[in-house]
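Re: weekly structure request thread

Next one in the queue (263 aa):
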Amino acid sequence: MKKTVLFILLFIGLKPLSAGDEFCGIRNTSFRDGESISFNVFYAVMGIYINAGNANFSVSLSEMNNKPAYHIVGTGSSNTSYDWIFKVRDRYESYIDTATLQPLKFIRNIEEGSFKKYENITFNQTTNTAVTTDGVFKVPNCIQDVLSAVYYARNINFNKYKAEDKIPFNMFLDNEVYSLYIKYLGKETIKTKYGKFRAIKFKPLLVKGTLFEGGEKMTVWVSDDENHIPLRIESPIVVGSVKVDMMQYRNLRYPLSSMISFR
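Done, posted below.
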């Protein structure tokens, strides 16, 4: 079965988490209600980049199963003028427990080329199960979905790691559990379409899908401040490569102190 998810959410890794692991039940210190971050997606063939699409991630407060929850929505689409090359219309939603950052519900509705997929998952953290239209699946402690995993990862304290360290977590997708990790690569200064930043650099290993090859080929830079917002993502794809730059933000929890200069 094809595993296709929004470009910055694709991870595959080494080992499962257990209930005693450090990041099981991590607390939110990086984002807040009302946050919205937008990105431009640039596609390149033979080194020439074109503005081929956009993506947006937003956070709002909601309720799920009588619990306060963050409602996270991630959308991605190709520009209509490039739909003939590869049409993308992706929408992801995750309801995340505000106290533990564990997912309560996940919805995926995507169209990538000729591939379409709708998925609706309800998580029960007490029984360690995930309920889908295909049945009830046993999952390990501290399971994440593809969208909650991004916001979970934003709360990692990267200062505790050294270059090449791998930070693991589990993700449930397409009725399967994946053992995932992020490889921390250190810190560096990066110049994006938005500006110049102090950044944290890491590599997720990719799940093979309709857009991305499998393997450790994607590089991600996030802001080296308390927000940890994605600034740039670079990756080869089946044909050519993509570069994704943060272009707009609203209602960050903290000042974007990692920015050295604007454009």
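Residues 1-20 have pLDDT under 50 and may be disordered. Residues 153 and 182 are 9 Å apart (CA to CA).
Next request, please.
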